[in-house]
Amino acid sequence: MSLGSRRLRFVNSESFRELDTDALQFGNATMKAQFPAEQTESGEFHRQEDVFREWISTDGSTAYATAADRYYLYVSLACPWASRTIIFRKLKGLEDAIGMTIVDPIRDEKGWAFRDPSGKIPPGAPFESTDPVNGFQFLSEAYSATDPDYDERVTVPVLWDKKTHRIVNNCEDDICRMFNNVFNDFARNRDLDFFPKELEADHAKLSSFLHDNVNNGVYRAGFATRQRPYEIACRRVFEALDQLEERLSKNRYLFGNRIVEADWRLFCTLVRFDVVYYGHFKCNLRRIIDYPNLQGYLMDLFQQPGIADTVNFDHIKRHYYMTHTQISPTRIVPIGPVLDLTKRHGREKIR
Ligand SMILES: N[C@@H](CCC(=O)N[C@@H](CS)C(=O)NCC(=O)O)C(=O)O
């Protein structure tokens, strides 16, 4: 039987009988999901769509004109989607043009809160807002200011417009592209381009593969509420990682020697993998440290100027283990793993 096969075989006097572990697990009941509105009856996690997708323009073609000190980013350092926008803001040198507030990594039933993120204030206790722009207590206030009828999950990242007092965009793909393209008059590193025209089609294809199999793949494994969808999702994650390991044995980065958006997209999942996805989301066939090329690549990206400042393992661990209480009801945060991403990686030898 293959490793991790989900069917248990029993021998009886007549024949082999296969036992469905799914049926044994819950009978007819479905386990309560972390996000019930995004769960299918067969136990799969289907992520909601981002709703606010307005575009900032340099030529007045949209209602949102590019400007310094007009747009503002609300993020969590725990979140892999929001982290990509933090990385783009940092790499393009947009810190002076676009302000940013980091929410408390721990979410309770009121959602993301503008609470001191150090963990000193227990959820539920009164707190002073850490949002210097609007004085919001909860991120949900930004969503209801934009659409009073909004009733889906309130997510980070959020790009807020201080002028019209509403959310412009809550999709990290769009926000990263805008940071790359439309703020160059205010960017310290205006010539950096993470979406090179000459790679456009292959790049889009790879980013979409990474989204489906890696970035969202770990969530599909972690949020599954039945054995079968978990196993399918988890195997897909590792098939993708095996392919990427092979690709990165010949290329320093995904497209050779230059770092593009897809690299930062992959980085945001890899850097969380051994710390939370391996244990909390049960993606545990292998760790990233078991893949020599992926681990070297992860360290190479982590050691790029400014990037280590965007990674906060305390926020990451407290967020996942203390917020997803359907998966981790005790809310205990594990002390490990021991991880050092600052070691020599030797990737510069791969040309
Ligand atoms: N915009 C992302 C999703 C962003 C997202 O789900 N962020 C999580 C944190 S990692 C969040 O804010 N969750 C809020 C919640 O679950 O209530 C997408 O592509 O769907």
Label this structure with key terms.
10 helices; Glutaredoxin; 351 residues; binds glutathione; alpha/beta; two-stranded antiparallel sheet; disordered N terminus; globular
Write the layout of secondary structure elements.
Blueprint: E1 7-11, E2 16-20, H1 21-26, E3 56-57, E4 64-65, E5 71-75, H2 80-92, E6 99-102, H3 140-146, E7 158-161, E8 166-169, H4 172-181, H5 200-215, H6 217-222, H7 227-250, H8 261-277, H9 292-302, H10 313-323
Parallel strand pairs: 3-4, 5-6
Antiparallel strand pairs: 1-2, 5-7, 7-8
Bound molecules: glutathione (GSH).
Ions, cofactors and other ligands present here are: glutathione
CATH class of the largest domain: Alpha Beta
Topology as a string of helices (H) and strands (E): EEHEEEHEHEEHHHHHHH
Largest sheet: 4 strands, mixed
Please give the order of strands in the largest beta sheet.
Answer: 6-5-7-8
Oligomeric state, counting identical vs distinct chains: single chain
What does this entry look like structurally?
With 351 residues, the chain is of the alpha/beta class. It folds into two domains: 56-186, Glutaredoxin, CATH 3.40.30; 198-322, Glutathione S-transferase Yfyf (Class Pi), Chain A, domain 2, CATH 1.20.1050.10. 34% of the residues lie in helices and 9% in strands. It contains ten helices and eight strands. The protein has helices at residues 21-26, 80-92, 140-146, 172-181, 200-215, 217-222, 227-250, 261-277, 292-302, 313-323, and strands at 7-11, 16-20, 56-57, 64-65, 71-75, 99-102, 158-161, 166-169. A four-stranded mixed sheet has the order 6-5-7-8, with helices on both faces. It has a two-stranded antiparallel sheet with strand order 1-2. It has a two-stranded parallel sheet with strand order 3-4. β7 and β8 (166-169) form a beta hairpin. Mean pLDDT is 92; it is low at 1-19. Bound molecules: glutathione (GSH). Glutathione (GSH) binds next to loops.
